[in-house]
Amino acid sequence: MDMTENLRPSGAHSTDQDPTSYPYASPSAYDGTAYNSAAGGYPPPPPYAPANRRKAKRPVALLAAVAIAAGVIGGGTATLVGRLNGQDSAATGSGGAVNGTTVSQSSKGTVAGVAEAVSPAIVEIGAASSAGKSTGSGVVITEDGEIVTNNHVISGAQQIQVTLSTGKTYTADVMGTDPDKDLALIKLRGASGLKTATLGDSSKVKVGEEVVAIGSPEGLTGTVTSGIVSALDRDVTVAKDDSGSSGQGQGQGRQGGGQEWPFEFGGQQFNGDTGEETTTYKALQTDASLNPGNSGGALINMNGEIIGINSAMYSPSSSSAGSGSSAGSVGLGFAIPVNTLKADLDTLRAGNGS
Questions:
Q1: If phi over 0 gives left and psi between -120 and 50 gives alpha, with beta otherwise, what is residue 219?
Q2: Residue of 202, 295, 311, 315 marked catalytic
Q3: How many helices (H) and strands (E) would you count in the chain?
Q4: What is the dihedral of CA 247, 249, 253, 255, to 10 degrees?
Q5: Catalytic residue at 233?
Q6: pLDDT per position as a tens digit, 277-321
Q7: Which residues make beta-bridge pairs with 149?
Q8: Of the listed 178, 182, 242, 344, which one is catalytic?
Q9: Distant-in-sequence, close-in-space partners of 219: CB < 8 Å, separation ≥ 6
Q10: CA distance 304 to 340
């Protein structure tokens, strides 16, 4: 079989190239009717084209190299994303607190990113007692419904109702309280698969760091404010329970015009009389806006980690007489460092200090 029949039609070829550039065979090796007598005629190509095969190898090799590089980069990206999303093998924290969702890589360092990641783990707490109703906030730390809040939010409560960011409500029971640290742990009935918060490290917090506060001020669920850490280790004194001398102590955002939770700072009392039974703790100070109902909510760093539990805020309208003008920005809020909470979790779970 003539190998040229299926490769190229017979006839003269263009004469703009040198026919001697094909060294595979001389014209005499073929039928001279089409090639020997034609000026500038070309011999047919060989049965294979080695030059073309060599050229083909290069893009194939290049594509393979690109694919390998993409695999390496992709693998590294997947590992990084997995760690950012809390899917690393060390995702479970100590003390039974489960690391929750963190800020995505694309939104890291933004208030919007922190709010999107952490808001599902912040709840509204409604506490009803013989003195009335109060509203506070809480932070979900386990998937089955353990929630951290302030002791003063649930102190004296006969019934506790918790509302998730989705609007779903649960009844909660008190697991343990620590009035000396103004902390409490409650547990939802029949809850599972909840979004949880990641507890950070308050010992690494620095003055000037950006923070986000999330809670339910005045019953406005999921309210987000932002600011900075304005001071560390502030001595804040609060009542141990709802027995403040004004009778207005329990909770924040009490319906019926009750005062905010009273506290002492810098030798002065704010938001009412703290009474005789008080406790003092070292607090993080922030200028992120806090209002009645934020108590028990989260103070969060820009990585989406809880660094404090909001507990007290200065309200100029209800401060004691002679404490100064109420004009100007307030910017005085206080949070219990999260390391204090982590050290107290086992005690709270055991129900000690109740």
A1: left
A2: 295
A3: 4, 15
A4: -20
A5: no
A6: 888 999 999 999 998 899 999 999 999 999 999 999 877 654 444
A7: 184
A8: 182
A9: 124, 135, 253, 293
A10: 18
